[in-house]
Amino acid sequence: MNRRLQGLYAITEDRALSAGEACVAVEAALRGGASLVQYRDKSGDHRRRLAAATALRVLCTRYRVPLLINDDVELARAVGADGVHLGRDDLDVRQARARLPDHSLIGVSCYNRFELAQRAVDAGADYVAFGSFFASPTKPQAVAATPDLLRRARTELSVPTVAIGGISPENGAALVRAGADMLAVISAVFAAPDIAAAARAFAPCFNPVKETRP
N or C: less crowded end of the chain, CB within 10 Å? Predict the structure, then answer.
């Protein structure tokens, strides 16, 4: 996939959201500058998940921002999403690629293991994700990752790299400097009282203000 991946990667909260609630929250994140959206709902309510994903597909198309579905290749197919994000218990990249339309975007969670990232890239992944870099309220038991993974990925891998886990506007810039192309965020955006403002606060992580000499 030739699409350049860079910027804020907004992942919806893993809780029961109606289609209307999901769209209100995600549109606020899009107004704040999110450049990629992942719909994440691990519940078994297929009807609600289908309705929400369908509505988000329409919304993200309007904003010209890719929509990925967490874990569920069949849901991605059903709603015409731009692709999927896969974890350790999901289909592998080649299996997912065979089930999705050509040019679909496939990302893979690699936790703190560089060999998983290399394997995913060799299988055709479009990006890899490392984390958790900081304590995360979403996954408090997640393994810890270090910026060295990002530095190594920048020099050894041919695909964009995503950092995830407890990321905020205050700590995100250091990860971008280390090599992250995207910062994946859940609570720091969607748990905020002003979602658009929370998303907008990440912009300096990617476009740092240059110091000027007096």
Answer: C
**What is the percentage of the chain residues whose pLDDT exceeds 70?**
94
Residue 9 above 90 pLDDT?
yes
Out of 40, 57, 97, 200, which one is annotated catalytic?
40
Give mean pLDDT, residues 15-43.
93
Domain boundaries, the chain: 7-204
In terms of Cα–Cα distance, which of 101, 109, 104, 21 is closest to 70? 109
CATH architecture of 7-204: Alpha-Beta Barrel (3.20)
Q: For residue 14, give the DSSP letter.
A: S
Q: What value does the mean pLDDT take over residues 34-44?
A: 93
For 152, the enclosing helix (H) or strand (E) is: helix 147-156
pLDDT averaged over the chain? Answer: 92
pLDDT at 87: 93
Q: Can you read off the two tokens belonging to residue 203?
A: 């912009």
Task: Please check whether residue 83 is in contact with residue 105, taking contact to mean a CB–CB distance below 8 angstroms.
Answer: yes
Q: Out of 35, 97, 104, 109, pick the active-site residue.
A: 109
Concerning whether 42 is annotated as a catalytic residue, the answer is no
Burial of 207 by CB count in 10 Å (0-12 exposed, 13-18 middle, 19+ buried)?
A: exposed
Tell me whether residue 139 is one of the annotated catalytic residues.
yes
Q: Is 40 designated active site?
A: yes
